[in-house]
Specification:
The complex is a heterotetramer, with two copies of chain A (80 residues), one copy of chain B (233 residues) and one copy of chain C (743 residues). Helix content of chain A is 35%, strand content 36%. With 80 residues, chain A is α+β, with helices and mostly antiparallel strands. The longest helix of chain A has 16 residues, at 51-66. In chain C, β15 (441-444) and β16 (451-457) form a beta hairpin. The chains are: A alpha+beta (80), B alpha/beta (233), C alpha+beta (743). The complex binds adenosine-5'-diphosphate and magnesium ion.
Chain lengths: 80, 233, 743, 80
């Protein structure tokens, strides 16, 4: 069973990485890129379990460890 | 002898390299801003450590795009000696001047400490005259020094004797216990096929004076100087 | 823009008392606008106004022949001769670090670095003094990991070495950790800059990062008590950008090589507000700023938000009129935002405009000089005497002293802190000659023969039991630590971490600690030139141990005379300086706490006059090259100092055997761990002994020869003996073991 | 115009961070999590342009900067 977790900075929170990336892209001549926000993307392999259990597990895992909810939001997708 | 010390936004070992080269070894070291696109008149190039562009995205990733890196490539193609230290090594990897890539230390911690290196090739400019299997005491300070390369690349490196330094213990044993960051094959430094481009994670510029606790780093710079002198003749 | 109506209730929510709000209305002669209310609330917050602490901070000695800049600027400056000086300051970032340990600690480092380079100094060293809750508290491991990597993440990236600090664990910090960070920089006398906005008509310039809605109310947050809600608050915590700060550092130092600027100040707590008002206040001028010209990261920001934002990595500059383009050129080279946002005026009023309207118009003096000053009631807590009572004879003697000894060395407070400092780049800039692991770090000052020694110390158990004595001892220990490296103590910065000052008991602790620190500083003739006060370190009404951390700066005229704490050489003689101080002093000791689970008793006697002579002796002995090592006796007393001198040796542990300097009559465990102050464990080559004793006599320091370095065991004859390697293992694994971190 | 970029480690390249996360999750008692691989996730705001141009731009940006193709793969999604 597979799942994908997305952890992103809350809006309004400064993203130094994104800022630096956007800068160097425009130095490179990619003017078209107006903003970049960098987040984490996690691919997770889960043992076979009910969908509801998987959701509960991922939600808890994000809350407790994978996301820093003071400055980050998270969401996830579960396959099938 | 004129040595270029490159300065990128976020370089922070540039002054240390400059100090070691100019004030300790008495060489004509000069800072070169990353927007320069020519390196004419220099005998060697040092890409110092630091956190270019904050190490954001990937260490060395944005620095490789600076104009000066084109000049470094041409300088290297012409056989000129180039040494990348720590972040400088990472920049050389990102720009493809050296093979492989760096990932985070196994411990996922920044590590600042003295380590021991075994010198495996005494032919390249930077170890010229340092007997092979010599043991050097040199500090590391990095978060991403865990060298990775795929199997083919590795066997090529090993085959051509491009592995210049390996982490070892005080007695010279290259063992897992002596590996600070998880680097494949305890690799601490490699060179290109031509031997004139060296990348190493440890910091020779930090131990070029006895009072720093080791002067072994100076041996790497003096080798380079000797190599240049002999080549000059 | 629709303006929020300003009510007494809104003022209260801004942390302003009813009286303070009335005072504002009187000053203004009208109701303040919401922006003006915001400005007053941050400027009058404890954090910016020092309203509860000022009357007591005055008691510190702040003058001296070496003082080039005392308190009141962004950092203090001390002359080290040859036209060189050091600028330094310590700051707390306690509350943010508890909410978000990584970013909280990181931005703490960023802030204190700006305080130092804004003076024109190139930062060359950081220290971090850390206090966490019980080591087995569920949150401690997470906080330790986050705080340490946050300090590493910022300090390493910007390239300033973290060369020393402390780590303590105590349940009084369970809900209020302390993260105090110190920075020292070097500056030439003729390159010192200050935060003043003089010269009517001069441009006011904004440089650095853009402004977002970061940490609005951070300054007031740092002045509020905690409750559970704090953890859900909208991100008042900012994200640090060490890369931008590195560019800002280089740009500012490049700018300061020109003579284009008049004054400069970082935008720290209360951001644009505090920098603009404080700079005008120092110069006795005013300013006019147009917020539409402020570089903004987010849309639709209000004047209130722009004035109060605590976005990091920003500076405010007052340049000479006509030199704007020179300044612009430098900041553009470094890819930083630059904007002329206003000008200096002569009427002593701070005017802020936006969208063509005046959004704030306040007399500068009103928010600065006329800020409220409180001499809050202070009263000795009833419980105080009870805490001091302790019946030694009732303490059970440990069955096995060698086990107890190892246990003491392996307890988190005593154990090796390498897991922490190994994550810090403590070598960068190649000045660190004595690395972390000795009593004080020693850095060379390139281009001179001089060295700087640094140590930060505070024993908060002593301060809890007797804040006056504890305050004295914090100064004495830090002075002893730098003296043990061969240096002369020349200046102090401090971070005064306390509970809620509105409580008389807390105010008593605060006042007593300051008076103790001041007394000791006078004995050493060291001025306090900078510092920081952090109040309201309370959770659910429970305050932390009073914790006045002291950062001591020491000077070596010749850095080649530096000393380390560990034994160097088989056959060297071991001596104890201050050996006459041999009555049992276990009150507040580590031994009581660790082995007997007690924090009680009278803390050790403090004798600043003796300590000052001791420091003089150490410096003389070092400069005459009579010593091989010097280690001060602190937590864990003689037994732990001896063991440390054996196991902290980088070349590997070495043995030593000494006699027990205490009278026969004293219980063995007491003799081992009694924490009598003013003692230092020395080692010297045999042929130096006569000279050493003569030097000690000059300074009226009692010395006793205790034994010799060598062998494979650490031993106090007739009491206990432990294999040196075994002792090292206990000490080296103590912290990571207790925290459950891999080696 | 919005786009999302996913940068993931190539199979076979070891992922210390993912391993550490998996380990601490199981310490925390999250039994079902068998493997975690950590990647990057970038949200990009682009100036209005044709879809083909956007694809070309993003592909170039990834190749030149956003991904290190020695150890990473990339893919992206463009809205609308
Ligand atoms: N948080 C820290 N950061 C850097 N170095 C530290 C830290 N904590 C402790 N150290 C270093 O570990 C050594 C031992 O610390 P400590 O026991 O507090 O020394 P002392 O008791 O002599 O003040 C010192 O060199 C100190 O600088
Ligand atoms: Mg201490």
């Amino acid at each position: 069973m597979k799942a994908r977790i997305f952890v992103t900075l809350k809006r309004g929170v400064l993203d130094p990485q994104g800022k630096a990336i956007q800068r160097s892209l425009s130095h490179l001549g990619f003017e078209g890129v107006e903003e970049v926000r960098v987040g984490k993307f996690m691919e997770v392999r889960l043992a076979a379990m009910g969908r509801a259990d998987a959701e509960k597990l991922l939600h808890e895992a994000c809350r407790l460890l994978l996301a820093n909810t003071v400055i980050e939001d998270f969401r996830f997708e579960i396959d099938g | 002898m004129k040595i270029a010390v490159l300065v990128f936004p976020g370089s922070n070992c540039d002054h240390d390299a400059y100090h070691a080269l100019r004030h300790v070894l008495g060489l004509d070291a000069c800072f070169v801003w990353h927007k320069e696109d020519r390196l004419t008149g220099y005998d060697a190039v040092v890409i110092p450590g630091g956190f270019t562009y904050g190490d954001y995205l990937r260490t060395g990733a944005m620095a490789k795009l600076s104009p000066v890196m084109g000049a470094v490539r041409r300088f290297a193609d012409g056989g000129g000696p180039v040494i990348g230290i720590c972040n400088g090594f990472q920049i050389l990897l990102e720009s493809g001047l050296l093979p492989g890539a760096m990932i985070a230390n196994e411990s996922l911690k920044f590590i600042c400490d003295y380590v021991y290196l075994k010198n495996e090739s005494s032919t390249v400019p930077f170890t010229h005259g340092i007997p092979s299997a010599s043991i050097l005491k040199i500090p590391i300070a990095h978060y991403q020094g865990n060298y990775y390369a795929d199997r083919e690349t590795l066997s090529a490196l090993e085959g051509n004797g491009q592995v210049v330094f390996r982490y070892c213990d005080e007695a010279g044993n290259v063992s897992p216990d002596a590996n600070p960051n998880g680097s494949v094959g305890n690799i601490a430094g490699i060179c290109n096929a031509g031997g004139n481009v060296l990348g190493m994670m440890p910091h020779p510029e930090r131990c070029s004076e006895e009072e720093m606790g080791s002067a072994d780093g100076r041996r790497i710079f003096t080798s380079m100087v000797r190599w240049l002198e002999e080549k000059g003749r | 823009m629709r303006e929020v109506a300003v009510t007494p209730e809104l003022a209260r929510q801004h942390g302003l008392s009813a009286e303070e709000y009335e005072r504002i209305r009187k000053i203004m002669g009208r109701d303040p606008s919401v922006t003006e209310l915001g400005i007053f609330s941050v400027m009058w917050s404890e954090h910016c106004s020092y309203k509860s602490s000022r009357v007591h901070l005055k008691k510190f000695p702040t003058k001296g022949p070496r003082v080039l800049q005392g308190p009141g600027e962004n950092a203090g400056i001390i002359d080290i001769g040859d036209g060189m000086a050091v600028a330094f300051k310590m700051e707390s970032h306690n509350h943010p670090s508890y909410i978000e340990p990584y970013q909280g600690a990181a931005t703490g480092v960023g802030g204190i670095l700006r305080d130092v380079f804004t003076m024109g100094a190139r930062p060359i060293a950081l220290l971090d003094s850390l206090r966490f809750g019980r080591i087995d508290h569920p949150r401690t491991r997470y906080l330790v990991d986050g705080v340490v990597s946050g300090i590493a993440g910022y300090g390493n990236c910007i390239g300033v070495p973290t060369v020393g600090g402390e780590v303590y664990f105590d349940e009084s910090y369970d809900g209020n950790i302390l993260v105090n960070v110190f920075t020292l920089g070097v500056v030439r006398h003729d390159r010192i800059f200050r935060g003043t906005a003089s010269g009517v008509g001069n441009p006011v310039i904004y440089v650095g990062s853009k402004t977002g809605r970061d940490g609005i109310h951070g300054a007031t947050m740092a002045s509020e008590e905690f409750d559970e809600k704090s953890e859900e608050k909208r991100p008042t915590v900012q994200v640090g950008d060490p890369f931008t700060e590195k560019l800002l550092l280089e740009a500012c130092l490049e700018l300061m090589k020109t003579d284009a600027i008049v004054g400069i100040q970082d935008m720290g707590a209360a951001g644009l507000t505090s920098s603009s008002f404080e700079m005008a206040s120092r110069a006795g001028t005013g300013f006019l700023m147009d917020l539409d010209l402020v570089p903004q990261r987010e849309e639709k920001m209000t004047p209130y938000e722009l004035m109060l934002s605590e976005s990091q990595e920003r500076m405010l500059i007052v340049a000479k009129k006509g030199r704007e383009d020179e300044v612009r050129g430098i900041f553009e080279k470094w890819d930083l935002d630059f904007s002329v946002i206003g000008e200096v005026t002569g009427d002593g009023i701070g005017r802020v405009r936006m969208g063509g309207r005046t959004v704030a118009e306040i007399p500068i003096a009103a928010v600065t000089d006329d800020a409220p000053v409180y001499n809050r009631p202070a009263a000795r807590p009833e419980g105080q005497d009870a805490m001091l009572r302790l019946d030694f004879s009732a303490l059970p003697s440990p069955a096995d002293l060698t086990e107890t000894w190892k246990r003491m060395m392996g307890c988190p407070e005593m154990a090796d802190k390498r897991w922490v400092y190994r994550q810090y780049d403590y070598m960068i800039r190649t000045n660190t000659l004595v690395l972390p692991g000795s009593d004080a770090a020693v850095l060379r000052v390139k281009g001179t023969k001089k060295g700087i020694a640094l140590s930060v110390d505070c024993n908060s158990r002593y301060c809890l039991l007797d804040p006056y004595v504890g305050g004295m001892l914090a100064v004495c220990e830090s002075a002893r630590n730098v003296a043990c490296s061969g240096a002369e103590p020349i200046g102090v910065s401090d971070c005064l971490n306390f509970g809620n000052p509105e409580k008389p008991e807390i105010m008593w602790q605060f006042r007593s600690a300051i008076e103790g620190m001041a007394k000791a500083c006078e004995a050493f003739k060291v001025p306090v030139v900078s510092g920081n006060v952090s109040f309201y370190n309370e959770t659910k009404g429970k305050g932390i141990n009073p914790t006045p951390t002291v950062a001591m700066v020491g000077l070596l005229e010749d850095v080649s005379t530096r000393l380390v704490q560990w034994f160097r050489q088989e056959g060297d003689l071991i001596l104890l300086a201050g050996a006459d101080r041999n009555a049992v002093e276990l009150g507040g000791s580590l031994y009581l706490n660790e082995v007997h689970g007690k924090v009680s008793g009278t803390p050790p006697e403090a004798d600043p006059a003796h300590e000052a002579r001791l420091c003089g002796f150490l410096r003389a002995a070092a400069s005459r090259r009579l010593l091989a090592s010097a280690h001060d006796l602190a937590e864990g007393g003689l037994a732990c100092a001896l063991a440390e001198a054996c196991v902290t040796r980088p070349a590997g542990p070495i043995g030593a055997a000494i006699a027990n300097p205490f009278p026969e009559s004293i219980r063995a465990d007491f003799a081992m761990f009694s924490e009598n102050q003013g003692r230092v464990l020395l080692s010297c080559p045999p042929d130096k002994k006569t000279g050493l004793l003569a030097t000690a006599a000059e300074f009226r320091i009692t010395m006793e020869s205790l034994g010799t370095v060598g062998g494979t065991a650490v031993e106090i004859e007739g009491i206990a003996r432990v294999d040196a390697q075994e002792m090292k293992t206990a000490w080296a694994g103590g912290l990571t073991g207790a925290l459950g971190f891999g080696g």
